[in-house]
Amino acid sequence: MGDAASGLIIDGAGVARCFWQPSMPDYHDHEWGRPVADDRRLYEKICLEGFQAGMAWITILRKREAFRAAFDDFDFERVARYTERDVERLMADPGIVRNRNKIVSAINNARRARELAEETGSLAGWLWKHEPAPRERPSAVDLDYWNNNPTSAASVALSRALKQRGWTFVGPTTLHAFMQAVGMVNDHLDGCVCRETVERARADFKRPS
């Protein structure tokens, strides 16, 4: 069952979830919106959101393990040392999205991530400083908000800050999706069973410094 007005779907037990949950049930129920503090996983998510541009996220999710194998599990210290030979290796890998500009961007962003971590102590600490304050969040995360806000003031600011540091494929829409995914915001729809779970996880989360 579903409620078109609310954007929620209701299962046989009467439990409500976001409308997109059936296409990615495990990702929705156990990963999306949970706070992430690990540098490698944050770099990975920025890269994968960049690869997703112009594509459906489920396509990237299905290829995630292949991406991890191809990019040394997104160890940005290793990826930062990739050469043109690695670009050609990645372009020949049928398990990933073979877009040269996006591959080159992932390597560039690994170098920028390494610089930022060396400068500030951790990529996570720097990124989480861009978490929006509660007053910057909407009063309700409903279907209208979901459909009409592909970016946010926080994602625009983070995009600008990363671009100033030389990052690429980090536009405001890409970073809005990134912030949603790694728990910097909780955009599970009001009424979704996961919304309160994520709120508790965010409340218990120790922000990296």
Beta fraction: under 5%
Q: Can you count the beta strands?
A: 3
Q: How widely separated are the two ends?
A: 43 Å
Sheet with most strands: 3 strands, antiparallel
Please give the share of residues in helix. Answer: 40-55%
Give a structural overview.
It is built from 12 helices and 3 strands. It is mainly alpha-helical. Strands 1-2-3 form a 3-stranded antiparallel β-sheet, with no helix packed on it. Helix 2 packs antiparallel against helix 7 (100-120), helix 2 crosses helix 11 and helix 10 crosses helix 11. The radius of gyration is 17 Å and the shape is globular. It starts with a strand and ends in a 5-residue tail after the last helix. Its EC number is 3.2.2.20. It comes from Achromobacter denitrificans. Keywords: Glycosidase, Hydrolase.
Question: Tags for this entry?
Answer:
single chain, 209 residues, mainly alpha, three-stranded antiparallel beta sheet, 12 helices, 3 strands, 4% strand
Short overview:
With about 210 residues, the protein is mainly alpha-helical. The protein is built from twelve helices and three strands. Helix 2 (about 40-50) packs antiparallel against helix 7 (about 100-120), helix 2 (about 40-50) packs across helix 11 (about 170-180) and helix 10 packs across helix 11 (about 170-180).
Task: Please outline the helices and strands.
Blueprint: E1 2-3, E2 8-10, E3 16-18, H1 25-30, H2 39-52, H3 57-62, H4 64-70, H5 76-79, H6 84-91, H7 100-120, H8 123-128, H9 143-148, H10 153-164, H11 172-181, H12 193-204
Antiparallel strand pairs: 1-2, 2-3
Helix pairs in contact: 2-7, 2-11, 10-11
